[in-house]
Amino acid sequence: MRTIRIALVQTNPLVGDLAGNRDRIIDAIGQAKKLDADIVAFPELAVTGYPPEDLLLKPQFVKDNLRTLKEIGKATTGITAIVGFVDTDKHIYNAAAVLDSGKHVYTYHKILLPNYGVFDEYRYFKPGTRYPVLLVNDAAVGISICEDIWFDHGPTGVQARAGAEVVININASPYHKGRGNERLQMLTDRARENKVNITYTNMVGGQDELVFDGHSLVIDKKGVLIAAGSQFEEDLIAVDIPVSGQPHIVPLKERGKILGSRPGSIDYVTLAKKATGKKPLLPLRKPEKPLMVCEEVHNALVLGTRDYLYKNGFTTAVIGLSGGIDSSVVAAVAVEALGSKQVTGVFMPSPYSSKESEEDAYALAENLGITILTIPIDQPFDGFLNALRPVFAETATDVTEENLQARTRGNILMALSNKFGWIVLTTGNKSEMSVGYATLYGDMAGGFAVIKDVPKTMVYEVAECCNRIAGRIVIPKRVMTKAPTAELRPDQKDTDALPPYEELDPILKAYVEDDRTFDEILAMGFDRKTVERVIRLVDKSEYKRRQAPPGIKITPRALGRDRRFPITNRYKSY
Amino acid sequence: MRTIRIALVQTNPLVGDLAGNRDRIIDAIGQAKKLDADIVAFPELAVTGYPPEDLLLKPQFVKDNLRTLKEIGKATTGITAIVGFVDTDKHIYNAAAVLDSGKHVYTYHKILLPNYGVFDEYRYFKPGTRYPVLLVNDAAVGISICEDIWFDHGPTGVQARAGAEVVININASPYHKGRGNERLQMLTDRARENKVNITYTNMVGGQDELVFDGHSLVIDKKGVLIAAGSQFEEDLIAVDIPVSGQPHIVPLKERGKILGSRPGSIDYVTLAKKATGKKPLLPLRKPEKPLMVCEEVHNALVLGTRDYLYKNGFTTAVIGLSGGIDSSVVAAVAVEALGSKQVTGVFMPSPYSSKESEEDAYALAENLGITILTIPIDQPFDGFLNALRPVFAETATDVTEENLQARTRGNILMALSNKFGWIVLTTGNKSEMSVGYATLYGDMAGGFAVIKDVPKTMVYEVAECCNRIAGRIVIPKRVMTKAPTAELRPDQKDTDALPPYEELDPILKAYVEDDRTFDEILAMGFDRKTVERVIRLVDKSEYKRRQAPPGIKITPRALGRDRRFPITNRYKSY
């Protein structure tokens, strides 16, 4: 049996760090050579990082990316590297370079461009129309990029019918909860319907609101998963894929039939001879059991936080600890991301703060081994009340004074950030951010919103997971059992303003993530008045979300670029 | 000579206000009928408002828009209305309904979808492939939507070759400085190259960061401008356009030649008989001289501010008055938008505030006839310093204390907003926002950033314009002549941290708006160190801009959705 050896490399590039990304790629090419791989595949846009967004509109950036690719090309003696980069003529393309033994022999242009959710690829790229089949040692290999493989009308079928026995698909596929299963199912379908082996190489790492989870996959032509890369970590896996040794090259005049109504061409590209088949087969690394959902979420939060900080030059973080579940989980994640010496907690009591809150904040800090400061807010808060007294003379106390407390805390954290270079991690969860139960410039003030896309009910699951992973109590039990409160007035509870989270979260999922109609949400069994109130709160708090710090996408629809809502909007669906 | 009478209606819709938008349209149909118009044309997506953004992903919203269109259709007895709406089958389309004497007789789907700048149309819409020519009283009329007319390969040529003598193009075309000239030039080209009359109907009003400036245009087939709607105001204009009376209908078998490589079809649509030609011609309203640039900008700021506030339920605003040019211009704009009784100024002195600043703030308030409050920041500021003293014990005074002052002011304004329902208008200009010379949660705190896209040098021009339009000194002379300062430490000047604005602004334009390379900017004659510094400041302050309030797009590339930059970004172009 003949085989072709393909290495899949999960790099963690940094957007715009062309030299660093180049070095990472060249280093991995060296590793792949040591493994005698015939072909080594890197993620989509591995040269630039993904997504480079409007950097792509800068001609100098595109030029610099081409120069970087050239430098990478020189490192490919004796091996073929498939490397994601930005190609250009009078347009630009999301492209895969075929770098073969020191030469750039072919360029593939992504055909299917995603332009939904977090993706804006039509903003930048022109779609390709050519379907390459690489011939290496008489093995036939198709290449494609990310979205290309998600649809049965995409290039996979064309390439398989044109003789490809393996399709190398390179990706920058962002994580969301359950994404792994969707990918596996899709790749299984694609492999089976085309009787083709597929290698799916994914990027790893955090980039602003996105986390790429790695978890590269190799599926054989029967649709069986035969190898998988690590989740949420850089990795290199190499597999030997059986090939016939005699690929069928479709004669020129028959290619039109394969293309059907598609414009473009099928391109056969002969690569330099490789050492395939003359070496002993690699031992197959059995795919590990995928992570459980709450571990997935936990790891995404840790990686997303670490990468946002490190890639932006931060090594230390500060978190306002209220003794509640949200700030506890954020602190636990921060410690895993950065180490306990790098995280400072701040307890900022007011007259409404309970003894329990203080105890819980301190217990958490002790469990995590982090420094905790206590900075009471009374003096600046009283200062505000005094300054405003003449103007507020005839008014009653209301939400203004609650917001002032939250904003005083926000200012204290920002002052610590300014003075000591600590980034402020905010602690709002998705349930709160969805309904606007948060104070702009108060608890929303900070550089990164770790659990912004984690609904409150899931925050509890992640908390349990933190304790399970640590193998001990990190987040105190009482934090998980007491009723959530903002402690901005006496005896306040979240449920004064909001439905219980067990009710709120499914309504939010239906409305925000699934675009269910009002009647559909009612039909799920919720109270009409409650649903109306939740929808109204979501709609009218868009202005707050627009000024929120970025946070990690965890669900299929996050509250960032994933959901683009007008602030000015009088639509009423109820 | 036979003529066809077309009315162009510049409505100011509110996104999502389907009932309100319907009423506006039905009202204007009534007016057009009184003018004996044969056809009345409304803006692009007049039913939903533009851009509805992710509301379009809600099936219920699309359904409600269809129901609204049906209600509008009933009002079209004796007239044809071209109305922008969202059509749907299994996809959705940016569409124009042809409503003819009570019936919905044809639906056009926009063919060219913009997906650059502020536009995301590929996120939602599928492009159309059909080219209608309406036949009304033997006149032949093409219809198209916005982007469709901007390119010589678009539908205008197809429709003209298919016999159209007039093309009705409906728009939601956002304002930017100089946009009017670009449109006029483009429409002149399109009319001449196709020997076709063009009516260009544009939306008017503010929607979040966009202002639609109206200024509908009618161009005859020689490329001469014969009528124009008001700039920045709702308007209805009606024109009689000469037609041959015997349009040439291209035989079916010859239509393929006109379509060329385009898929799709040419559709002739016969409308109900109208009263064309039996009525005396309308007197032609001569196009007014377009506004000067600084008036354009001024009017865009006023309309954008008024509509953002009114459409979001605000009628009153509060502005921190520093005695400087930025807050003075914002206050002047706010007064024009809302009236002087609706605007409150707040002077918030610190020990670093000069006597001149106070005098200038008070002079401005008097000139504008607005209430001004003085709220010193000492007490809350000292409260912060006291609270932080134990933690800051061993540290030197630095930017932390400056930011604390700015944030104390931000908190005071937000407290006034919470207590009295006034929206806070922020006063940062584009130069500051570009280089991050602003304090998050401090001077950046507020609901709307009026001059966010106005470079500092242009702020002075707008100030002059405010005085000229008022016919008296509104913004005191000294405000325009003194050196800009943040007054956060003794003797501070903006030029301590930044190059002079006369130098900064052209560098920013080259880098931010024009994507010039580093070498190109140097070649403009700027100092290398200065250019490096400016680029570095722009790149590293993206995180601040991401948390800024929305503001009005004034330049070809604003700092909102118009420019989508990664925060995490290590690209260095110098």
Brief characterization of the structure:
Chain A is an alpha/beta fold and 574 residues long.
**Could you give me the name of the CATH homologous superfamily of the largest domain in chain A?**
Carbon-nitrogen hydrolase
- Structural class from helices and strands of chain A? alpha/beta
* Number of helical stretches of at least 4 residues of chain A: 18
Categorize the overall geometry of chain A: elongated
Query: How many domains would you count in the coordinates of chain A?
Result: 2
- What fold name stands as the CATH topology of the largest domain in chain A? Nitrilase/N-carbamoyl-D-aminoacid amidohydrolase
CATH architecture of the largest domain in chain A: 4-Layer Sandwich
Q: What is the tally of beta strands of chain A? A: 20
Question: Low-confidence spans of chain A: pLDDT under 50, at least 5 residues?
Answer: none
Straight-line distance between termini of chain A: 64 Å
Main sheet summary of chain A:
7 strands, mixed
Oligomer: homodimer
Top CATH class of the largest domain in chain A: Alpha Beta
Percent in helix of chain A: 25-40%
**Largest interface, C-beta within 8 A:** A-B, 87 and 87 residues
> Mean of residue pLDDT of chain A?
96
